Amino acid sequence: MSEIVVILGNVFIVVGLLFDLLGCIGLVRLPDVYNRLQASTKCVTLGTCFILFGSFLLMGFLWKAILAIAFVVMTSPTGAHAIAHAAHHSGIKLWKKSVVDRYEEDKK
Amino acid sequence: MKRLALFIVSFLCWMVLTWTLYLPSVLIGLGLAILVSFWFADLFIQEPRKFFQIKRLAFFLYYIPIFTYYCIMANLDVAYRVLHPRLPIKPGIVKVKTSLKTPTGRVALANSITLTPGTLSVEITEEGYLYVHWIMVRTTDIKEATERIVRKFEPILKEIFE
Asked: pLDDT tens digits, residue range A5-25?
């Protein structure tokens, strides 16, 4: 039983690290601030949650980690929203191949 | 009622964080939770009645697996776009409408949108319009975009927060 839990915990941590890595690759490859935020928020949130869940299993059902997951899930998208909002307000343009910007149209 | 709700939440947080039944620790937590709930209850909780309704809690528990599913799909989606050599993206900001009225409900919706495939909420207005950055714009029409982005969560969030 405990061995399965250990293996599962390690698998969760490795998968979480992979997602974190993908988020970083997205941060480098995608063109503008909004797209980068998309990649980094999604991947880093889930990656961190997976790592925390892995440590929850490895450390013998450490419920703190679950609480931390709840807080990360609540705060990380809020932070991304704040950054995107601030970027748009300070006049950062979308990528040149973007199709539409309803927000800019409505602001005028 | 407000105070009781905040007291339960903060005391639970304390107990989980310390994770011990050692008496002095529990007593300190109790005292702190009482202080916090007396000072900040008016700031955090507007309608305490909702906090104690079992139906809302049940819908919340039902919401967790759905949200997790969409979250994982979002990550696979990002993985596909980021690793694809030609970078298949077509970004843009579209406008959608939500019928949620309460601030908490709207925050939950905006956060859910941010963590689900290809979308990131940029701004929300008083009238309930959300501006959403979409990494793969399929439609610029308000109605259709609402159908695609908001419909997944709105009915459940309505049950939880409205």
From this structure: 899 999 999 999 999 998 898
